[in-house]
Design goal:
The complex is a heterodimer of chains A (425) and B (292). Chain A is an alpha/beta fold and 425 residues long. Chain A contains 13 helices and 18 strands. Classes of the chains: A alpha/beta (425), B mainly alpha (292).
Chain lengths: 425, 292
C-alpha cells in the first residue's frame, strides 16, 4: 500500500469518526402535555418526535443527529417562558420549535425575540402576536385567526346557490385568545395591542356583514370550567338562527357544544366550528351529529402536498403512512402542523449550513412562493410580520363519518361536493 | 314562563350530577377531616373505567357504575392505608391533607395520562344526546338519568349512615373521634371504610359524568373549585347540605348563564363561596364552630 493510500484511508476514517461523534443538534420545545391544552399538546409532541426520528434515520441534519428536548409546560404561560429560557441558557439548544396555542405563544414570542431565536410557530393565530414588531416569527398555518372568517364566507358565497344561504347567525365563542380573534374578524371589531392599547387594525364591517348575514345571537363562555352547555345550546336554538358559528378553543369544547345542540334538537341550515377536524370529534359526537358540520383546517390527509425532508421528497401521503406505522392511528392536523414546523427548521439549517439563528431567519425570510419552504402543509413564504403569504384554508365537512374537503375547488384532486343544508343533528 | 321552567329543569338536572360529584368529598371531609383535592381526579379515573367498559364490551356506562364504584373503593382502601393512616393522629392533619391530596391529584393525573393518554373521551349511549320533549320544553335524558341515579345513591347512603350500625359508628366518628374510640368504635377501621365509600362515590360519579361531560386527565382542575364551593356552602361534611347546595347553585348558575351571560355562570359558584364565608361560614347545614 502506498503512503498516499494509507494517508487517504486514515483521513477518511478520521472524518467518519468525526461525523459519528459530531455534537447533536439540540432543539427544544415546550408543550402543554398536561393541563387544559393537553389534548393538542400531546399530538404536537408526536409531530415533533416523528419528524426528528425520520431525520435521524437518514443521518440527521448536516451529518449531525437531532436531539429533541420536550418539556411539559402544564398549559401554563409562566412555565412555558421559563422552559424556553432554560432551553437557551442551560441546555444551550441550537434551535427551538414553538408551542401550542395563542395563549402560550404570545408571551413566549417576547422571550425568543430577546434571544434572536428563529420562532417557528405551529399554533398562535392571534394577529396581535405578529404586530409586536418581532422579526423572528414564522407562522406555519394559513393565516391569522382574524382572517379565517374570509374563507368561511367564501364557502357560503361560492358553494351555496344565491338566495338559499343562511340569513341569520348565532355566534358563540370561548373567551379565549384564539376564539376572540376569530370572532373579531367575523364581527368586524377593532384589534388592539393589549399592552399599549394601540389600534392594530379595524376589521369593520366584518365578514358576516359583508356577506349580508345578520347576527341574531352572540354569547361567550369562560375560558375554563364551563359546564352549562345545554343551557347555551337551548339559547342558540331559541334564537332561531339559520347558521351556527361555534368558536371553540379546544376540540373538547367542540364536542360538548355539538352534543348539546343535538340534545336540544337544534335545526340550523349550516354549522361552522373552529375545531372538530380531529378524530376525537367524530368519536365524541357520532356520525349523525357531525354530518355536514364545516371546519377550517390547514391540512387534510388526502391533500396532495409535496414536500421534502433532509433534501429528499417526502410528501403528505408519506407522512400519513409513517405516522400510522409509528403510532397506530391516523394523524390529524395537530400532529401535521408541528411536523411542518420541524421541516421548516430542518430546511433552514440545511439551507444555510449552520445553526446560526440569525442566518436561518434571513434564509426563511428570503423564501418566495417559487422557492418556498416545502412542507406537508404545502408551500410557505412569509411576510415581514411572519404570516404566510398567498394561502387559503382547506374547508372541510364531515360527511357520513369521514372528513372530506370541500373548498377550495379546483386547486387539487379529491374535492367532495358541499352538502347543504344540514339535516338536523 | 316556559323559559323559566326550562332553565329550572336544566339547572336541576346538572345539579343532581354535581351533587354526586361533591357528596364523596363531603363524606370524606366530614368523617376524616381530609380535604380531598384529589377527589375530582378520582372521578375522572371512574369515568375512564366506564369509558373502557363501554368501549371494549359495549356495556352501558350506567351498568358500569357499580364496577367503577367497587374498583375505586378498593383503590380508596389502598390510598388510605398508604397515604393517610400514619398521619391520622397528627394535630395538623386537616392542613396536611390539603398538601397531600394536592400531590395525590397530580400523581393520579399523571398515571391516568400514562395509562389512557391525554386524549379527551366521552361515552355516547343513545340517551346521552337525547331528550324528552314536552311541548316547548325538553328534559335532557342523559342529565335526567344521571341526576336521578345520583339522588338515589345519595339517598341510600343517607339511610345507611342513619340506620345501620356501621352508619352509627361513622357518624359517631364524625362528631367526636376520641369519644367514639372511648366507646369502643374502631375508628381506624371506620376511617378506612368511610374513605373507601367516599372514593367509591367518586367512581360512581365518574361513570355518570362519562356521558354528561367530556373528560381527560387534566380536566379535574376545572372541577375542584366548583365542588369545594358546593361542599363549603353545604356545610363542610354535610351530605344533605351538599345536595341542596349543588342543586341551588346549579339553578342559579343556569339563570345567570341565560340572563346575564354564559361568562358569568361559572362565577356563580365562586361568588356564592365568597358570600357564604362572609355571612355564614359554617355553610347551610354545618354546625357553628365553637368559640375558643
Amino acid at each position: 500500500m502506498t503512503l498516499a493510500r494509507i494517508l487517504a484511508a486514515t483521513t477518511a476514517l478520521a472524518l467518519a469518526a468525526t461525523a459519528a461523534h459530531a455534537e447533536p443538534i439540540r432543539i427544544g420545545a415546550s408543550l402543554p402535555i398536561t393541563g387544559g391544552l393537553s389534548v393538542s399538546g400531546e399530538k404536537h409532541r408526536r409531530g415533533y418526535e416523528l419528524c426528528t426520528k425520520l431525520i435521524n434515520a437518514v443521518g440527521g441534519i448536516l451529518g449531525r443527529q437531532v436531539e429533541l428536548i420536550v418539556s411539559d409546560n402544564r398549559s401554563d404561560p409562566a412555565t412555558a417562558i421559563n422552559q424556553y429560557e432554560r432551553f437557551i441558557n442551560v441546555d444551550k439548544v441550537d434551535a427551538v420549535y414553538g408551542t401550542f396555542s395563542s395563549r402560550l405563544t404570545f408571551p413566549v414570542a417576547a422571550i425568543l425575540s430577546k434571544y434572536n431565536m428563529v420562532h417557528a410557530i405551529p399554533s398562535g393565530a392571534a394577529l396581535r402576536i405578529y404586530e409586536q414588531g418581532y422579526t423572528n416569527l414564522f407562522y406555519f398555518q394559513v393565516s391569522a385567526a382574524e382572517y379565517i372568517g374570509k374563507d368561511v364566507v367564501a364557502v357560503i358565497r361560492d358553494l351555496i346557490p344565491a338566495g338559499e344561504g343562511p340569513k341569520t347567525v348565532a355566534i358563540v365563542s370561548a373567551d379565549d385568545f384564539f376564539a376572540n380573534a376569530l370572532a373579531a374578524g367575523l364581527l368586524g371589531e377593532k384589534i388592539k395591542d393589549p399592552a399599549t392599547d394601540r389600534e392594530i387594525t379595524d376589521l369593520a364591517p366584518g365578514y358576516l356583514a359583508d356577506a349580508g348575514i345578520k347576527v341574531v345571537m352572540q354569547e361567550k363562555w369562560p375560558e375554563e370550567g364551563f359546564n352549562d352547555w345545554l343551557n347555551l345550546a337551548n339559547s342558540i336554538k331559541r334564537s332561531g338562527a339559520e347558521m351556527i358559528i361555534g368558536l371553540t378553543a379546544s376540540e373538547e369544547e367542540a364536542v360538548q357544544l355539538t352534543r348539546s345542540l343535538k340534545t336540544v334538537g337544534a335545526t340550523p341550515k349550516l354549522v361552522y366550528l373552529s375545531q372538530g377536524a380531529q378524530n376525537e370529534f367524530i368519536e365524541g359526537v357520532g356520525k349523525d351529529a357531525a354530518d355536514d358540520v364545516m371546519i377550517h383546517t390547514n391540512w387534510h390527509k388526502d391533500a396532495p402536498f409535496e414536500s421534502t425532508l433532509v433534501g429528499k421528497p417526502f410528501n403528505n401521503a408519506d407522512f400519513v403512512k409513517a405516522f400510522e406505522i409509528e403510532y397506530g392511528v391516523e394523524p390529524d392536523e395537530d400532529s401535521a402542523i408541528p411536523f411542518a414546523v420541524c421541516q421548516g427548521i430542518e430546511q433552514a439549517i440545511t439551507g444555510v449550513g449552520t445553526t446560526d439563528n440569525a442566518k436561518m431567519g434571513e434564509w426563511l425570510h428570503a423564501r418566495t412562493m417559487d422557492d418556498p419552504v416545502r412542507t406537508i402543509l404545502g408551500r410557505f413564504a412569509w411576510d415581514e410580520r411572519g404570516l404566510a403569504k398567498g394561502k387559503s384554508h382547506i374547508m372541510t365537512q364531515w360527511q357520513d363519518g369521514t372528513l372530506k374537503f370541500v373548498y377550495p375547488t379546483g386547486e387539487f384532486e379529491g374535492v367532495a361536493p358541499f352538502s347543504y343544508p344540514k339535516a338536523g343533528f | 314562563m316556559t323559559d323559566i321552567i326550562q332553565i329550572l329543569i336544566l339547572g336541576l338536572a346538572l345539579g343532581g350530577v354535581i351533587a354526586l360529584m361533591g357528596s364523596g368529598l363531603a363524606l370524606v371531609f366530614g368523617v376524616m377531616r381530609i380535604v380531598n383535592l384529589a377527589h375530582p381526579s378520582l372521578i375522572i379515573a371512574g369515568a375512564y373505567i366506564a369509558y373502557w367498559g363501554a368501549k371494549l364490551t359495549g356495556i352501558d356506562p350506567i351498568v358500569m357504575l357499580p364496577v367503577a364504584a367497587a374498583i375505586m373503593a378498593g383503590i380508596g382502601v389502598l390510598m388510605y392505608r398508604l397515604v393517610f393512616e400514619r398521619e391520622a393522629r397528627n394535630a395538623k392533619y386537616s392542613e396536611m391533607t390539603v398538601l397531600l391530596t394536592f400531590a395525590l391529584a397530580m400523581i393520579v393525573e399523571g398515571v391516568l395520562g400514562g395509562l389512557f393518554t391525554n386524549t379527551q373521551r366521552v361515552t355516547s349511549p343513545g340517551y346521552a344526546t337525547d331528550a324528552f320533549f314536552l311541548g316547548d320544553l325538553f328534559i335532557p335524558k342523559g342529565q335526567l338519568y344521571a341526576g336521578l341515579i345520583s339522588l338515589v345513591i345519595i339517598g341510600a347512603l343517607s339511610l345507611f349512615l342513619k340506620y345501620s350500625r356501621l352508619g352509627y359508628a361513622i357518624r359517631a366518628t364524625t362528631q367526636n373521634r376520641e369519644a367514639a374510640e372511648l366507646l369502643g368504635v374502631n375508628v381506624n377501621l371506620i376511617s378506612v371504610l368511610a374513605f373507601a365509600i367516599g372514593i367509591g362515590l367518586a367512581g360512581a360519579a365518574g361513570s355518570l359524568v362519562s356521558f354528561v361531560f367530556s373528560f381527560f386527565p387534566a380536566k379535574h382542575w376545572e372541577w375542584i373549585a366548583m365542588l369545594m364551593s358546593v361542599v363549603v356552602l353545604g356545610g363542610m361534611g354535610s351530605i344533605l347540605g351538599t345536595v341542596v347546595a349543588a342543586l341551588l347553585l346549579s339553578v342559579i348558575a343556569a339563570f345567570v348563564g341565560t340572563w346575564v351571560g354564559a361568562t358569568w355562570s361559572t362565577m356563580t359558584f365562586f361568588l356564592a363561596l365568597f358570600v357564604i364565608l362572609l355571612i355564614r361560614p359554617q355553610g347551610l347545614f354545618g354546625e357553628k364552630p365553637e368559640m375558643a
